[in-house]
Design brief:
Order of helices and strands: HHHH
Mean pLDDT: 83
Oligomer: single chain
Length: 127
């Protein structure tokens, strides 16, 4: 049983390392902000998830205890990564993309962050 757990933990760590490497490489090499956004939010999240699963298996098999820290880290990661990606995408769209260059939404409302009139800048409420 311990040999199988060692093999599984080793496999997960190698796969997680590859995902982390690919995510970092994609962050450097991709040319557009929206393309770069996928590298850390997808590949690197899977890499960190693999390390956390390997850690949970290690503690459960070799130290005979369940570690809840990894579950909390995983929950925090899966909650914050999409929110951060959404903020970065919205900032990029608001700064660099005009509303007329965006595809249609297919609904009755337009893109969030743009007013109905057009490409005019919206005032920022500092209250």
């Amino acid at each position: 049983m311990e040999l199988l757990a060692e093999i599984l933990v080793s496999f997960l760590l190698v796969v997680a390392g590859l995902f982390g490497l690919l995510g970092s490489f994609g962050l450097i090499k991709l040319d557009d902000t929206m393309r770069r956004l996928h590298a850390p939010t997808k590949a690197t999240t899977l890499g960190v998830g693999g390390v956390l699963i390997a850690s949970m298996i290690y503690f459960a098999v070799f130290l005979d205890r369940i570690s809840y820290h990894e579950l909390l880290i995983t929950a925090f990661l899966f909650i914050t990564a999409p929110i951060t990606a959404n903020f970065v995408a919205k900032a990029h769209m608001h700064r660099d993309v005009k509303e007329r260059d965006l595809p249609g939404t297919g609904g009755t409302y337009g893109w969030a962050g743009y007013d109905e009139v057009g490409d005019e800048e919206q005032p920022i409420d500092t209250k």
